[in-house]
């Protein structure tokens, strides 16, 4: 394998590892946001208009930024009920086959996310809600996370 490809793979692995480890803590941020939502809505009776969307943004970041990390550490979900009973050769063949479909899916998703991010930046897109946040930060995170996978 050429040195450039090895360097690129090692770089992506390093970025995925560091990003994934930092992303793990977004669960606590999301928990805080949802507890704050409960307290302000049900106890203080002052609902915040931005809080649910913020929780959705944090969850999106958590899911997409953690994807590369889970693939790197082989912690993603499998149908282990069937997979564990297969022979090693069959597992390797199945992994190769699913990897082809996954790579195709990720390439299409990455292309679409770049297109969506470009449109969002060009039009200065906002969500159609009372809070009306800009969409480019979450779409940037989405594109970066898909790129790491």
Give a summary of the structure in a few sentences.
With 149 residues, this protein is mainly α. It is 77% helix and 0% strand.
Could you explain how this protein is built, in words?
- With 149 residues, this protein is mainly alpha-helical.
- It has one domain.
- The protein is 77% helix and 0% strand.
- It has six helices and no strands.
- α1 crosses α3, α2 runs antiparallel to α3 and α3 runs parallel beside α6.
- The longest helix is centred in the last third of the chain and has 36 residues.
- The mean pLDDT is 93.
* pLDDT averaged over residues: 93
Residue windows where pLDDT falls under 50 for at least 5 positions: none
Strand percentage, roughly? Answer: under 5%
The profile of the biggest β sheet is:
none
**Helix share bin:** over 70%
What's the order of the H and E elements?
HHHHHH
N/C terminus separation: 20 Å
Describe the global form.
Answer: globular
Report Rg.
19 Å
Number of strands: 0
How many discrete domains?
Answer: 1
SS-derived structural category: mainly alpha
Specify the number of helices. Answer: 6
Features:
single chain; 149 residues; mainly alpha; 6 helices; 77% helix
Blueprint (SSEs and pairs):
Elements: H1 3-23, H2 26-43, H3 51-72, H4 80-83, H5 88-123, H6 136-148
Helix pairs in contact: 1-3, 2-3, 3-6, 5-6
